[in-house]
Every structure is written in C-alpha cells, then in structure tokens.
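Consider today's protein:

***
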Amino acid sequence: GAERVYFLTERRALRIPTPPPMRNHGNYVASICEVVRWLGAEAEALGVNVFTGFPVEALFVAQGAVRGVRTVATGLGRDGRPGPGYQPPTELSARVVALAEGTRGLLTQAWLTAQGVRSTNPQIYALGVKELWETRAPLDAVVHTMGWPLGGDVFGGSFLYPLDERLVALGLVVGLDAPDATLDVHGLLQRLKAHPLFAPLLEGGECVEWGAKTIPEGGYHSLPERLVGDGLLLLGDAAGFVDVPSLKGIHYAITSGILAARAIHSALKAGDTSAAGLAAYDQAVRASRIVKDLHARRNMRLAFRAGFVRGSARAALMELTGGALSGPPIRVAADAEVERRAAEAPAPPPGALRKVDAVYRSGNQTRDDIPPHLLGTEGLPPALEDLLDHLCPAGVYEATPGGLVVNAPNCVDCKATDVLGPRWLPREGGSGPNYRRM
C-alpha cells in the first residue's frame, strides 16, 4: 500500500517526502496482540509451558546469581491482608531468567541498580496513546504526521495504520522530556482527531479500543554497558532496543529473543549459565542489526532536545552521512530532571473521549479493592501533582486542593508517571487492561 507523511498546522496538512528511516513500502501492518497470541500457541505446540496471568514481583538470587523469580500474591485486600481467594506468591526456580518485561521493567531496573550497570545516558521515554476505530470507509495508506498539536520544542508525532478493511489504529507518541507542565498526550490525541486530515475518515465511525504505553527512546547511548549477568539476560524494550527514527522496536525485540534463545541453549548444553557462559548473547546483540542500526542513528532522537527545527536539520545530516557526522554523544538528563514551564491546558474539543471512558475501552479488569500499587504519591510538590494529573492518560491522578487523589484501579500500566514520580509495582494476575486487537 501507499505511505504518506505530513507536517501539520492547526488547519492544514502539508505532505512532505517520506524520511528514509520511515519508508515501509512492502512491509505488513499487524496487531501485536494477535501476533503474541499466535506465537504463544506456536510455542505451546512445541511443548513450551506458557503461564499467563502470573506477574512477577522479584528476582530470586542466590550467591549473587539469579536463580528464578517470585510471583505476585493474589487475593489481597486494600489493606494488604489476605482475603477471599488468596494465593501466596510462588517461587519459580530457573537456571536462566530472560527479562523481556517491556518498557520500564521493574526487575530490569532493580537488577541494573543492584549490579551497578551503567550507560552513557539515562534512558528517556515517550508516552504513546492509541485508539482503534471501526470506520465507514477503508484507509488506503500508512500515514505519519509531525508538527501540530505539538509545540516546536516537543518531540513526537502521530500514526494512522490500516489493520483491516475498516479497522484503523490512530495514535500519538510524545516525548516525556516535553517542557510543558500540562502535557496531556490523551488530550492532544483528542484534538488531533478533529484535524481535517483525520476527521473525515473518523466521521460516522466508532472508537472500539483504547490503550497507552511508554516507549524507551534513548537509543544507543542509553543501552546498558552489559546485557547479561549470572543467570540473566535483558531483551527487547527492557534493554532499550528501540530505534526512534525508523519507529522500530518489535523487530528488535524478536531478534533479541532469537539471539537469547541460541545463547541460552549453548549455555545449558555447556553447563555454564554464569555471565561468562551467557556472554555470547551480549556479543551477538552488539554484532547484530539491533546495535548497528541504533549506532548509525545514535544522536538523532537526542538532537531534538534543541527543538524541532534544529533537531530536524541535524537528524537529516546524520541520515545523509549514514551516521558519520553524528558527532560525540549528546548528553541528556533523565526525563524527571527536565525543567517544566507553566502553561494553560487547552480545552478538549467537543465530543472528546473522556479518560474514564477510555479506560473502559481498554478492557480494564482491576478490582476496586486491590492494595495500592503506586508508591510515593504522598507529600509531592503541587507542581508535580498537577503534572501527574494532566499526564496520566487513564485519570489515575487528580490534583485537588486537599491533595493528590489516586484512583489506582484506573491504571493501565503505561508507566508514564513511573518515569516522573510515583513508583509502579505489578498487581495480581488479571489486573489492568485486556487488549484484544491493539
């Protein structure tokens, strides 16, 4: 199919040449949910035990080596005490644990901190909010946009993908280093839907599913200095394998899984699952297209910290020279350390999808009386409370004169506020969104 890229103003869409990293002619668009379900069935057919609905809260470590995991208890009341249907945590032993827990992985962060594993830059993130629409007319192209409704000092853009004859995915991804203290990605997506480029396609259609997640955007300079330890490997988003200029992450996650499987197989055959025994994985990743691609575009995303115009110019120069003129590493601070400026939040357009209705469309199945899983929400500065109120796409946080109100059951595990303030912990199995076609 066709592919089109536009630069948007509030009322107009200027078509621009498709940047080389974003050219996808001949590729396929697929639902990640459906791909994962298919892969799970294929794995089970080969004899793999797949235990869904058992979140993990901690690594089991013995003599400094990872030897398994501990699952989350279920059936706890709001006070943390066992209630009806209580099941205690389970410890699962393993000779190797492959952490493929996605963006802002709790266990990954704990392991990196405990092991003192460093990176040139801290990891930085974006928040993506996506809606699936059943439309009256089919979409004939893959569409990406940049510009409005984002300001010139905010990095991000939108996408519009055809998934079926009359099913499209529309989303907006925005860097969490945006200096706007009222950043509301969900609200910005609602404004985007009213743009003349999108409104005709959506008119008469229906939003049937909604979701949100964070994406690691630091690239090459945010990769951990090592990807293995005694009994452990890091894969996919957990390791930061996302190339922002080409909008590719799933590809690298799958590639890293293949490389990890080969290294684990060799280590088990050799009877050595130490860091040295698993080092072949680290070496294979560094020699693969994953790190080669990330290195070639190592400063592209970071260049946009200087603004859209200057960042675009520098990124174009880097792409034209195959990364040869990238220069030294561009140093950036963590998203939580970015200075935010006061701003007035724009009013939502008529008919905008409310956050509470968006959470319903995510299929959220969280009990109302689960124990708190968002830590550090008390005693926050008013400015941070206000930022969390606007930023959270699921309406978990409400800044009130009496303090921050936390609607924890609304959480869809996007990890956005985990980047900037309160810490996120996994909940009991079955909690959170139940995406069907995202």
User: Anything to note?
Assistant: The CA atoms of residues 135 and 202 lie 6 Å apart. The mean pLDDT is 94. The two ends are 21 Å apart (CA to CA).
